[in-house]
Design goal:
single chain, 55 residues, mainly alpha, 0% strand
Length: 55
């Protein structure tokens, strides 16, 4: 799941609380703070969006 939106509105808090409540284990990855991960995600999203199966 990718959550996007305005800064400082509770996106991170909400997803961490949801994960803690619904799952035994969770992982939090911030693509904004890691340029290598950010570039990898950008490539994945670009190739996915051009796929005929993308919805």
């Amino acid at each position: 799941m990718i959550i996007r939106g305005a800064r400082q509105v509770g996106k991170t808090w909400l997803m961490k609380a949801f994960g803690k409540q619904e799952y035994a284990q969770t992982a939090y990855v911030n693509f904004e703070s890691n340029n290598c991960l950010k570039e990898s995600l950008r490539k994945i999203l670009t190739s996915t969006e051009s796929s005929p199966h993308y919805k």
